[in-house]
Amino acid sequence: MAVLFEDAVKQDLKSGNIADGYLLFGDDAYLKKLYADKLADRTAGLQSVFDLQRFSGDCDLQSVFDAVTQFPMMAERRYVELTDYDFERADKSDFDKLCRMLEELNDSCVLVLRFDSIELDLKKSAKTKKLITAMEKAGGKVVKLDHRKPAELCKMLTDGAKKRNCKMENAVAQYLIECVGSDISLLSNELQKLCSFTGEGAITKATVDEVCVKSVEASVYDLSLRIFNKDAAGALALLDHLFFLRIEPIIILSTVSSAYLDIYRVAAARKSNATFADVASTFGYKGREFVLERAARQIPKFDNKKFLKSFEALSEADHALKSFGGDERTILEKLIVELCFILAERQPL
C-alpha cells in the first residue's frame, strides 16, 4: 500500500502523465479541491458539459458507474469525481460495486475519489485497505494531502507577494502564519488583502497587525507572550479585550496552558537530545512546527522550579474555573499576576 504525497500529483500534472484514478485524502481541504480541479481541467476542461461529471456522497453508485464507462465526446478522456462517499457505512453490494468500478477503469476516463469530511483509517479499516488496493491495481494513485510545512507556506506567501508587486520577508510570512493559522485558503485570502492594502512595496508585521484578523489561538497567545515578558499590565489589558470579544475563559486558560506545555516539551527534548521533528511526531505538531520554534525562544526564562510553580498555578486556575464557584475574570486576573511574579522572581544562588 503506497501512499503518495503532493509532489506525486504535481509531477503528473506537469508531465501530463495523468493516471486513470486518484484517491485524494488528508487534512487540507484546500489542496484536495485544488488538485481535483487541476486534474479535471487537464483531463476534460473545467467548463466541459459532456466529459466532466461530479457526484456527492449521497448519490446512486450506478450513476457513477455509468459515467465512468461512457466514452468521451469532446475530449480525449472523461473526468468523473466522487466526493465523500461513505464506503465504511455502505452495504457490501455497494462497496463491491465501488471496488469493481475501479477494477474496470481504462484510459478513457479519470476517476477521482475525494474525501473532505470523511477520514480514512489506513491502519485498522479493512474496507479502506481494500479500496486502496483496488485503486492501485487499477493503475491509480493514493495521495495524502496534508497541511503544508511552515517553510513551504512561507515560500508560498513570499512568492505570492512578489507576483503582486509586493515584498514579504520570510519572518513576516512566518508571523502571518502564527496569526491566522496554516489553512492555505485562509492564508491566500489574507495575502490578497495585504497586497491590496499595501499596493506596492514591503509588507511588514505592523501591516499584518493592521489588516489581518487573528485567530483566537493567536490572540490568546499574545496574552501568553506578555506573561512571558513579565508585562502584567499589558496582559491584564489584553485579557479585558478577550473578554470583550466574548472568548470563553476556559479557552483562554487552555491556550495559555498549551503555550507553557509547548515550552516544557521543547526544553525536555533538548535535555534528551531529541529534535523538533521528534517532538512534532510524538505530540502532534505536524504542520505546526513553528509553534516549537516559538516555544524554544522562551526556554531561557525558565528553570525547573519556575516550570513547577507555573504548572501548579495553571492547575489551580483550571480547578477553580471548572468548580463554578468563583468569578471567572478574577480567577484569570489572579493567574496572570501570579505567572508574571513567578517569572520575575529571582532564584537563590
State the major sheet. 6 strands, parallel
Compute the separation of the termini in Å. 58 Å
Count of individual helical segments: 16
Low-confidence stretches: none
Described by its quaternary structure, the protein is single chain
Radius of gyration: 25 Å
Order of helix and strand elements from N to C terminus = EHEHEHEHEHEHEHHEHHHHHHHH
Strand order of the largest sheet: 1-6-2-5-4-3
Overall shape: it is elongated
Percent in strands: 5-15%
Q: How many beta-strand runs? A: 8
Structural class: alpha/beta
Q: Mean pLDDT across all residues, rounded?
A: 90
- Which percent range fits the helix content? 55-70%
Write a compact overview of the structure shown:
This protein is an alpha/beta fold. It has 16 helices and eight strands.
Describe the structure.
- The protein has helices at 6-15, 29-43, 61-69, 92-103, 126-137, 150-163, 170-180, 184-198, 205-211, 216-228, 232-244, 249-271, 276-283, 289-296, 304-323, 328-344; strands at 3-4, 21-25, 52-56, 78-83, 109-114, 141-144, 166-168, 201-203.
- Helix 11 runs antiparallel to helix 16.
- Helix 4 links the parallel strand 4 and strand 5.
- With 349 residues, the chain is an alpha/beta fold.
- The model has no long low-confidence stretch (mean pLDDT 90).
Descriptive labels:
349 residues, alpha/beta, 16 helices, 8 strands, 59% helix, 10% strand, elongated
